[in-house]
Amino acid sequence: MTSVTVYGAPFSPAVSRVLACLYEKDVDFKLAPVDMAKGQHKSPDFLKLQPFGQVPAFQDELATVFESRAICKYICNKYPEKGNQNLIGGRDGGLLARTSVDQWLEAEGQSFNPPSSALVFQLAFAPMFGFKQDPAAIEQNEAKLANVLDVYDRRLGESKFLAGDDFTLADLVHLPNGHILVSKKEDLFLSRKNVGRWWEEISARPSWKKVVEMQNVPQS
């Protein structure tokens, strides 16, 4: 019986980031739905798991962890022998390999995530939940994201993946927002030769395909 529980729904970008990592590491898990429409994420019991009342939350026999990128690093460090052993730079990769992963993880969090998350909300979630789209916000964040992807394109002309020649967490963390944005504004990614090649490769990974399958299952 698995001891790993992830709280949240797979359509959430942050939850899907954790699920992709678990699949990469071949770690069994249980997904526990959180009905945010009914305010379950603000309940006293859930706030013990995630003090900010957001998803995902992660729990195993040792710890409770929140924030998707921290959860992913915890999974990689707890299960170094399982599944993909290169996600945080490889056990034998040394300081430079791990630092390369860390710096591109930071770049995703600081540079890619803010404009991409704003676009995901405006282009996908606002229409879904009946909110009015903001054309100015879309234009502004599309320009910001384009600048980031220009940097990525140069980097990916030098290496197969962001942190080097192996697929790592630095690539994986882009999958949730990238998946939504490619379905809405694919030219942002696919018009850039190196970014397009990179995106086609990382989005075709079996781990991510499993997450997409989960997303396509109707939620009760």
UniProtKB/TrEMBL annotation:
Belongs to the GST superfamily. Phi family. The keyword Membrane does not apply. It catalyses: RX + glutathione = an S-substituted glutathione + a halide anion + H(+). It comes from Rhynchospora tenuis. Residues 94-220 form the GST C-terminal domain. Its EC number is 2.5.1.18. Signal peptide: none annotated. It holds the Pfam family GST_C. GO terms for biological process: glutathione metabolic process; response to herbicide. GO terms for cellular component: cytoplasm. Residues 2-83 form the GST N-terminal domain. It is an enzyme of class 2 (transferase). This is glutathione transferase. One of its GO terms (molecular function) is glutathione transferase activity. PANTHER family: GLUTATHIONE S-TRANSFERASE RHO, GLUTATHIONE TRANSFERASE. Keywords: Transferase. InterPro entries: Glutathione-S-Trfase_C-like, Glutathione-S-Trfase_C_sf, Glutathione_S-Trfase, Glutathione_S-Trfase_N, GST_C, GST_Phi_C, Thioredoxin-like_sf.
